[in-house]
Amino acid sequence: MEKSEVKPIGYALSGCTHDSLIFVVMEDARVKFNHFYFIEHPTNPDLWVLTRTYRIQPYNPEMITGRTGPLAGKKGRRAEYGKRLEYTVAFAEILGYYDEKGKWRMMEVAPSPWDRVYEPSEEALKRFFIPKTRERDVLLLEIGKVRGTNIPVYIDLNSIAKGHMFVAGMTRSGKSSFIINMVAKASRLKPRPRFIIFDIRGEYNSLRKYGAKILPYTEFTPAITDPNVIADKLELKGKERSLLIEAIRSLRNEGAAINRDNILARVREILKQGVIYKTVKSQEKALSGIEWFLENKGTFIDEQSEPLDIIPEIKENPLIIIDFSVNTDIEAQQRTAKYILDRIRNYAMERKDYGDFACIIAIEEAQYFAPERGTEVRESSAQSSVKASMIETASQAGGYNVGLILLTQRPAYVLKSVISQCNSVACFRLKSGNDQDAILQYTEYGSERLRDYLPGLADHEAMLWGLAIPTPFPVIAEIEVEEYPQKAAAFARSAWEKMEKEESQSLEDSLSGLPLHLRED
Residue 406 domain-assigned? Predict the structure, then answer.
């Protein structure tokens, strides 16, 4: 790299380490937060080392308490004589460098005092971002630009399919837009990747124009055969619950159809044995109670149908959106999610020797399906089952080309054993300390500097790192947004105005039928 491609802007101070650079900024130079700067390698000046600033702090000794600066400020004057003593110190993390063979390495030694710090030209900086991967091993997709530059940022969809991605960020920071635009751009790739999206809030309808097939989750809801789940939905307690569970288990063991008539008939048979209820009167009362619950709350048992098979749908449609917003039946949604995950994972394992199946499953609100212990939305066997399925899928499916993209606004609420399986991360703005801790402790970035970057990210800006990011260091990207999530049809103010008009019209209509003297009253 030619010296003409860099400009000196400062000098290293004492106190630098192998991963931390502190430097004073030259008087006529400007250093920006979250920007990249170069230093020469201390033992090999021909190699450039990449750094990124995370804090910039001005100092003026005349403005320290007890000096003349504060006394002048007290009188409303500026101590201009002290301006020449002012200086700026920048703090940067040392990211690493490419050695003579083009291998990325971390810094082994600390910069020395008076080592120069340089601002690179965009062309010089760009060389650090050229993906150094073999074409056959990747499927690169440009998703934005390095913040403040025109340097493209890529993600490798092949790596996501093999190792999962965790996407975190506060509400409205850009998580859903990131997925929508990634999927939209991927529709132009050859080969075209296969995506399944668990759409919790009905936000992904804009992907229809890219060939998305939107299906209500109820198409994939499996029949309930678990005795405990049926008993939960019927709200049975005590001995009646035990009796029902025993009856259903007996039917399952014999391979008999589980419907209300068969369940009631089997309950009668068990009651006649006189084991649970001893007297005829107590048996009749128990039978009457179970019969009432089956008749009034058990219609779902007979209404269940064979679920749609997700595998043919994936083969026929590159993009499938499973719409979970059609109702609020939490238990059914969790049961359906488990069914889909299990079916895809098991099929991928069956086809492992053929190499003819791969897909990426994007799951909105990951804490809903894999909550951290103690933060469960609702205790149920369905929730335990889908959590176990998520753990198994995250642990095994990547090896069979089934990747997960887990999205959440609260990383602290997502099961940590699932987060730790994601070897790529896209992190949007996060201010909560608990959520930052979850990212720091359970992903592979591991630097406390994350706390400096994440709170200040703008909308649609993300810090990305991991195997799916071709650069060997974290990158802050401005995500290119072409399509937006479909949120509420109107702002709250507009909705309230419509409600007032409807209320006024309703009142007017109700008064129109009254005599004039009553309307005036």
Answer: yes
CA angle 16, 21, 26 (to 5 degrees): 110
Tell if the pTM clears 0.70, that is, is over it. Answer: yes
How many folded domains does the chain comprise? Answer: 3
Q: Is residue 509 part of a domain?
A: no
User: Are 330 and 399 in a shared domain?
Assistant: yes
Query: Could you read off the pLDDT of 275-325 as tens digits, one per residue?
Result: 778 888 888 888 899 889 999 988 888 888 889 999 999 999 999 999 999
* pLDDT of 449: 82
- Which tens digit of pLDDT belongs to each residue from 339-354? 999 999 999 999 999 9
Tens digit of each residue's pLDDT (9 = 90 or more) over 155-177: 999 999 999 999 999 998 999 99
Check whether residue 121 and residue 211 sit in a common domain.
Answer: no
Going by C-alpha positions, the residue among 173, 213, 255, 113 that lies closest to residue 457 is 173
Residue 402 has pLDDT above 70, yes or no: yes
Give the residue among 460, 447, 514 at the shortest CA–CA distance from 144. 460
The three-state secondary structure class of 471 is coil
Distance CA(198)–CA(422), nearest Å, equals 18
Asked if 40 and 23 count as a contact pair (C-beta separation under 8 A), the reply is: no
Q: Is the same domain home to 260 and 328? A: no
DSSP 340-405: HHHHHHHHHHHTTTTT---EEEEESSHHHHSBPTT--SS--HHHHHHHHHHHHHHHHGGGGTEEEE
* Rounded CA separation 446/395 (Å): 21
Q: Is residue 401 part of a domain?
A: yes
User: What range defines the domain where residue 269 resides?
Assistant: 227-303
